Amino acid sequence: MQVAKPAGPGAAARKYDILSALMAYALAADRLVQRRVLRIMALITARYNWSRDELCVGQREIARLWSVEERTVKREMATLRSMGWLVQKRRGARGHLSVYGLDLDRILEDTRGCWPNVGPDFVERMDPAQIAPEETNVVPLRAGPAPVATGSVWGAVQARLHAEDPVTYGAWFHALTEVELAAGRLVLAAPSAFHASYVRTHLATRLLAAARRADPSIAELRIEE
């Protein structure tokens, strides 16, 4: 999904929609995730330059905004970059601050599962093609339990996905089970046709990337019902 930058007519409403998606995502998560999302929302509302698509603010100022120490800012900004929500556009050097941008595609993809919590009108406004046809297709959203270490490739993939995004892991990845790993192909089974279809459509790229980091020989991913 390619997201137009919130500029021009309707930009204000689009910005509120992005914040609403983040809010719903945070409220479905644990306290650690809630605090992290609140912090990036504070940066967006207080310091993000939408016309230039950039955030350029020093760690000391961020620390004051967040009421934390600068070392906490450094750690949280690194986490937000690893999640893909913040993208470093220019690295700070010689007295100049680092410049960041928002990856709205990644933010909205990560929060998509929580859109129904805002309401069907919000889902339709954000992505009319993805309205669940039946109420039974709505997946309960909560941070999934940490996967048990098994020493397998799929176990390593699960651990990485949980560390990156425990809410999306709990909603979509936790229920997947390994069927086969052979000849560079990883086959997983989903608990329902809707679940399999959603993962294929919206999460397959992220899932395959995580699998390749665990085992570079994996070239193909298949999700079965």
Secondary structure layout plus pairing:
Blueprint: H1 11-27, H2 31-47, H3 59-66, H4 70-83, E1 86-90, E2 99-102, H5 104-111, H6 115-118, H7 120-126, H8 153-164, H9 166-173, E3 177-182, E4 185-189, H10 193-214, E5 220-224
Parallel strand pairs: 4-5
Antiparallel strand pairs: 1-2, 3-4
Helix pairs in contact: 1-2, 1-5, 3-4, 8-9, 8-10
Provide structural commentary:
The protein has 225 residues and is mainly alpha-helical. It folds into 2 domains: 11-107, Orthogonal Bundle (Arc Repressor Mutant, subunit A); 136-224, DnaA, N-terminal domain (GMP Synthetase, Chain A, domain 3). The protein has 10 helices and 5 strands; from the N terminus they run H-H-H-H-E-E-H-H-H-H-H-E-E-H-E. The protein has helices at residues 11-27, 31-47, 59-66, 70-83, 104-111, 115-118, 120-126, 153-164, 166-173, 193-214; strands spanning 86-90, 99-102, 177-182, 185-189, 220-224. The strands form 2 sheets. It has a 3-stranded mixed beta sheet with strand order 3-4-5. A two-stranded antiparallel ribbon has the order 1-2. Strand 4 (185-189), helix 10 (193-214) and strand 5 form a beta-alpha-beta unit. Helix 3 (59-66) packs across helix 4 and helix 8 packs across helix 10. It starts with 10 loop residues before the first helix and ends with a strand. This is DnaA N-terminal domain-containing protein. InterPro entries: DnaA_N_dom, DnaA_N_sf, WH_DNA-bd_sf. Residues 152-212 form the DnaA N-terminal domain.
